Amino acid sequence: LTFEVLRTDTPRTTTQGTSFIAPQDWKITVRGAATLLEPPEAGSRMALLDVDAKDADAAVEAAWAAYGAPGHKLMTSSDRANREAWHDTRIYSYETSPNERRDVRATARRSSGQRWTVVIEDVSVAAIDKRNAQRALIHSSLLPKGFERESFAGKKARQLGPVEIAELKRFVTRAQGVLRVPGISVGVVQDGKVAFAGGFGMRELGKKAPVDENTLFMVASNTKPLTTLMLAKLVE
Question: What is the rounded distance in angstroms from the CA atom of residue 173 to the CA atom of residue 183?
Protein backbone atom coordinates (compact mmCIF):
# COMPACT_ATOMS: atom_id res chain seq x y z
CA LEU A 1 0.00 0.00 0.00
CA THR A 2 1.10 3.55 -0.73
CA PHE A 3 0.42 5.97 2.11
CA GLU A 4 0.25 9.76 2.00
CA VAL A 5 1.87 11.54 4.95
CA LEU A 6 -0.19 14.50 6.16
CA ARG A 7 1.70 17.67 7.05
CA THR A 8 -1.24 19.26 8.86
CA ASP A 9 -4.65 18.31 10.23
CA THR A 10 -6.51 17.65 6.98
CA PRO A 11 -10.26 17.31 6.19
CA ARG A 12 -10.90 14.04 4.35
CA THR A 13 -13.81 11.75 3.50
CA THR A 14 -14.31 8.01 3.43
CA THR A 15 -15.12 6.18 0.20
CA GLN A 16 -18.83 6.87 0.82
CA GLY A 17 -18.47 10.53 1.78
CA THR A 18 -18.33 10.47 5.58
CA SER A 19 -16.15 13.44 6.52
CA PHE A 20 -13.47 13.54 9.22
CA ILE A 21 -10.18 15.23 10.07
CA ALA A 22 -7.03 13.19 9.52
CA PRO A 23 -4.35 14.24 12.05
CA GLN A 24 -1.04 15.86 11.28
CA ASP A 25 1.91 13.50 10.70
CA TRP A 26 -0.40 10.49 10.24
CA LYS A 27 -0.39 8.39 7.08
CA ILE A 28 -3.54 7.76 5.05
CA THR A 29 -4.55 5.51 2.19
CA VAL A 30 -7.59 3.66 0.81
CA ARG A 31 -7.85 -0.11 0.50
CA GLY A 32 -11.12 -1.20 -1.03
CA ALA A 33 -13.93 0.15 1.17
CA ALA A 34 -11.55 0.98 4.04
CA THR A 35 -9.85 4.30 4.65
CA LEU A 36 -6.70 3.45 6.62
CA LEU A 37 -4.94 5.79 9.03
CA GLU A 38 -1.62 5.11 10.76
CA PRO A 39 0.21 7.24 13.34
CA PRO A 40 3.93 7.91 12.89
CA GLU A 41 4.75 5.07 15.28
CA ALA A 42 4.74 1.73 13.47
CA GLY A 43 2.37 -1.07 14.40
CA SER A 44 -0.91 0.82 14.95
CA ARG A 45 -3.81 1.44 12.60
CA MET A 46 -7.33 2.85 12.42
CA ALA A 47 -9.75 1.96 9.63
CA LEU A 48 -12.93 3.83 8.65
CA LEU A 49 -15.61 1.94 6.72
CA ASP A 50 -19.17 2.73 5.62
CA VAL A 51 -21.46 -0.30 5.48
CA ASP A 52 -25.15 -1.09 5.11
CA ALA A 53 -26.45 -3.29 7.93
CA LYS A 54 -29.58 -3.95 9.97
CA ASP A 55 -27.96 -3.09 13.31
CA ALA A 56 -24.66 -2.21 14.98
CA ASP A 57 -23.63 -5.84 15.48
CA ALA A 58 -24.10 -6.59 11.78
CA ALA A 59 -22.30 -3.38 10.82
CA VAL A 60 -19.23 -4.28 12.87
CA GLU A 61 -19.24 -7.82 11.50
CA ALA A 62 -19.36 -6.47 7.94
CA ALA A 63 -16.60 -3.96 8.67
CA TRP A 64 -14.29 -6.62 10.09
CA ALA A 65 -15.00 -8.82 7.08
CA ALA A 66 -13.98 -5.98 4.74
CA TYR A 67 -10.95 -4.99 6.79
CA GLY A 68 -9.81 -8.41 7.97
CA ALA A 69 -10.84 -10.75 10.81
CA PRO A 70 -10.04 -9.31 14.28
CA GLY A 71 -8.42 -12.43 15.65
CA HIS A 72 -9.60 -11.39 19.13
CA LYS A 73 -12.58 -12.47 21.20
CA LEU A 74 -15.23 -9.85 21.95
CA MET A 75 -14.92 -8.73 25.57
CA THR A 76 -17.59 -6.04 26.03
CA SER A 77 -19.95 -3.86 24.02
CA SER A 78 -21.87 -0.82 25.21
CA ASP A 79 -24.07 1.95 23.85
CA ARG A 80 -23.10 5.60 23.72
CA ALA A 81 -25.26 8.73 23.62
CA ASN A 82 -26.47 10.17 20.31
CA ARG A 83 -24.35 13.01 18.94
CA GLU A 84 -25.30 15.49 16.22
CA ALA A 85 -26.51 13.39 13.25
CA TRP A 86 -25.27 10.06 14.67
CA HIS A 87 -27.58 7.51 16.27
CA ASP A 88 -27.29 4.08 17.88
CA THR A 89 -23.57 4.43 18.60
CA ARG A 90 -22.04 1.28 20.08
CA ILE A 91 -18.46 0.47 21.11
CA TYR A 92 -16.99 -3.03 20.97
CA SER A 93 -13.85 -3.93 22.94
CA TYR A 94 -11.83 -7.09 22.25
CA GLU A 95 -9.65 -9.21 24.48
CA THR A 96 -5.89 -8.84 24.20
CA SER A 97 -3.12 -10.45 26.23
CA PRO A 98 -0.95 -8.36 28.59
CA ASN A 99 2.06 -9.17 26.44
CA GLU A 100 0.43 -7.64 23.36
CA ARG A 101 0.00 -4.25 25.05
CA ARG A 102 -2.68 -3.32 22.53
CA ASP A 103 -6.16 -1.87 22.43
CA VAL A 104 -8.47 -3.45 19.84
CA ARG A 105 -11.96 -1.99 19.43
CA ALA A 106 -14.64 -1.05 16.94
CA THR A 107 -17.16 1.78 17.08
CA ALA A 108 -20.34 1.71 15.00
CA ARG A 109 -22.45 4.80 14.32
CA ARG A 110 -25.61 5.09 12.23
CA SER A 111 -26.46 8.21 10.27
CA SER A 112 -29.72 7.36 8.48
CA GLY A 113 -31.50 4.30 7.15
CA GLN A 114 -29.21 1.28 6.97
CA ARG A 115 -25.95 3.21 6.54
CA TRP A 116 -23.38 2.77 9.32
CA THR A 117 -19.88 4.15 9.77
CA VAL A 118 -17.53 1.82 11.63
CA VAL A 119 -14.14 2.81 13.05
CA ILE A 120 -11.82 -0.13 13.70
CA GLU A 121 -8.84 0.50 15.97
CA ASP A 122 -5.86 -1.79 16.53
CA VAL A 123 -3.31 0.35 18.35
CA SER A 124 -0.43 -0.16 20.75
CA VAL A 125 -0.48 1.18 24.31
CA ALA A 126 2.49 3.36 23.41
CA ALA A 127 0.52 4.95 20.59
CA ILE A 128 -2.45 5.50 22.90
CA ASP A 129 -0.26 7.32 25.41
CA LYS A 130 1.14 9.62 22.73
CA ARG A 131 -1.66 9.92 20.18
CA ASN A 132 -4.87 9.69 22.18
CA ALA A 133 -5.86 13.30 21.45
CA GLN A 134 -5.48 12.65 17.73
CA ARG A 135 -7.57 9.48 17.99
CA ALA A 136 -10.24 11.56 19.69
CA LEU A 137 -10.01 14.16 16.90
CA ILE A 138 -10.84 11.52 14.29
CA HIS A 139 -13.89 10.34 16.25
CA SER A 140 -15.17 13.82 17.17
CA SER A 141 -14.79 15.15 13.63
CA LEU A 142 -16.74 12.31 11.97
CA LEU A 143 -19.83 13.66 10.22
CA PRO A 144 -22.29 11.93 7.86
CA LYS A 145 -22.17 12.87 4.19
CA GLY A 146 -23.86 16.22 3.60
CA PHE A 147 -24.19 17.08 7.30
CA GLU A 148 -22.89 20.43 8.53
CA ARG A 149 -22.48 21.45 12.15
CA GLU A 150 -24.63 24.31 13.35
CA SER A 151 -22.68 27.51 13.86
CA PHE A 152 -23.63 30.78 15.50
CA ALA A 153 -20.67 32.63 13.96
CA GLY A 154 -21.78 35.92 12.47
CA LYS A 155 -25.29 35.68 13.90
CA LYS A 156 -26.67 38.45 16.06
CA ALA A 157 -28.03 37.40 19.45
CA ARG A 158 -31.74 38.05 19.92
CA GLN A 159 -32.61 40.41 22.74
CA LEU A 160 -34.11 38.66 25.74
CA GLY A 161 -37.54 39.83 26.78
CA PRO A 162 -40.41 38.30 28.78
CA VAL A 163 -41.30 35.86 25.98
CA GLU A 164 -37.73 34.60 25.61
CA ILE A 165 -37.23 34.30 29.38
CA ALA A 166 -40.47 32.31 29.66
CA GLU A 167 -39.28 29.93 26.93
CA LEU A 168 -35.91 29.57 28.69
CA LYS A 169 -37.70 28.59 31.89
CA ARG A 170 -39.81 26.03 30.03
CA PHE A 171 -36.68 24.57 28.39
CA VAL A 172 -34.82 24.27 31.70
CA THR A 173 -37.82 22.66 33.38
CA ARG A 174 -38.20 20.11 30.56
CA ALA A 175 -34.47 19.31 30.63
CA GLN A 176 -34.57 18.95 34.38
CA GLY A 177 -37.28 16.32 34.11
CA VAL A 178 -35.65 14.40 31.24
CA LEU A 179 -32.23 14.34 32.93
CA ARG A 180 -33.67 13.79 36.41
CA VAL A 181 -31.68 16.63 37.94
CA PRO A 182 -32.95 17.66 41.41
CA GLY A 183 -32.02 21.32 41.15
CA ILE A 184 -30.57 23.85 38.69
CA SER A 185 -29.40 27.46 38.92
CA VAL A 186 -29.35 29.56 35.77
CA GLY A 187 -27.87 32.97 35.08
CA VAL A 188 -27.98 34.81 31.76
CA VAL A 189 -26.00 37.97 31.07
CA GLN A 190 -26.72 40.10 28.03
CA ASP A 191 -24.99 43.37 27.12
CA GLY A 192 -23.20 43.33 30.45
CA LYS A 193 -26.40 43.12 32.50
CA VAL A 194 -28.14 40.22 34.22
CA ALA A 195 -31.13 39.36 32.05
CA PHE A 196 -32.23 36.46 34.21
CA ALA A 197 -31.11 34.71 37.39
CA GLY A 198 -33.11 32.03 39.15
CA GLY A 199 -33.35 28.48 40.40
CA PHE A 200 -35.39 25.39 39.62
CA GLY A 201 -36.17 22.41 41.82
CA MET A 202 -34.80 21.32 45.18
CA ARG A 203 -31.31 21.41 46.69
CA GLU A 204 -31.55 17.81 47.83
CA LEU A 205 -33.84 14.91 47.02
CA GLY A 206 -36.45 14.34 49.70
CA LYS A 207 -36.08 17.84 51.16
CA LYS A 208 -37.99 21.04 50.50
CA ALA A 209 -35.18 23.64 50.42
CA PRO A 210 -35.43 25.21 46.95
CA VAL A 211 -32.62 26.13 44.59
CA ASP A 212 -32.25 29.83 43.79
CA GLU A 213 -29.71 32.04 42.03
CA ASN A 214 -27.53 32.14 45.16
CA THR A 215 -27.37 28.37 45.78
CA LEU A 216 -23.81 27.03 45.99
CA PHE A 217 -22.92 23.91 43.99
CA MET A 218 -19.96 21.56 44.08
CA VAL A 219 -18.77 21.93 40.49
CA ALA A 220 -15.33 20.33 40.86
CA SER A 221 -13.01 20.95 37.88
CA ASN A 222 -15.52 23.26 36.19
CA THR A 223 -13.96 26.02 38.31
CA LYS A 224 -10.82 25.83 36.13
CA PRO A 225 -12.24 27.34 32.92
CA LEU A 226 -14.23 29.86 34.97
CA THR A 227 -11.10 30.95 36.83
CA THR A 228 -9.12 31.08 33.59
CA LEU A 229 -11.76 33.31 32.00
CA MET A 230 -11.78 35.66 35.00
CA LEU A 231 -7.99 35.95 34.98
CA ALA A 232 -8.03 36.63 31.25
CA LYS A 233 -10.50 39.47 31.78
CA LEU A 234 -8.35 40.94 34.54
CA VAL A 235 -5.29 40.89 32.30
CA GLU A 236 -7.05 42.63 29.38
Answer: 10
